[in-house]
Design brief:
Layout (H helix, E strand, L loop, with lengths): L8 H13 L15 H12 L13 H13 L8
Helix pairs in contact: 2-3
C-alpha cells in the first residue's frame, strides 16, 4: 500500500482508518506536503520507478488525485479495475 497525500487533517484520518483495516503501510512510500497536481505527478512517478513499486495509491485531495492520475495514465496503468 502506498499513500500519496496532501496536508489535510482528512488525510490523517484516512490513514488511521486504513491502519485499522489491516493493510501494511510502508512509511518509506508515504509522500506528504504535496502542493498541486505537478508535485503529485512527480511523486507518483518516483514511487513507480522504485524496485518494488506500490500496488495501490491512496490520495486524499482532488488536485493530488489529478496529478497521480496523470502519471498512471501516462504509464498505461488503470484505476478502479479488479
Amino acid at each position: 500500500m502506498v499513500v500519496v497525500r496532501g496536508t489535510s487533517r482528512e488525510a490523517v484520518l484516512h490513514l488511521e482508518g486504513l491502519a485499522h483495516a489491516g493493510p501494511t503501510l510502508r512509511e518509506e512510500l508515504v509522500r506528504s506536503d504535496l502542493h498541486g497536481p505537478d508535485a503529485a505527478a512527480s511523486a507518483t512517478a518516483a514511487l513507480f520507478d522504485l524496485d518494488e513499486p506500490p500496488t495501490a495509491l491512496f490520495t486524499a485531495q482532488n488536485l493530488i488525485t489529478v496529478g497521480a492520475m496523470r502519471t498512471l495514465r501516462a504509464r498505461g496503468l488503470h484505476t478502479g479495475s479488479r
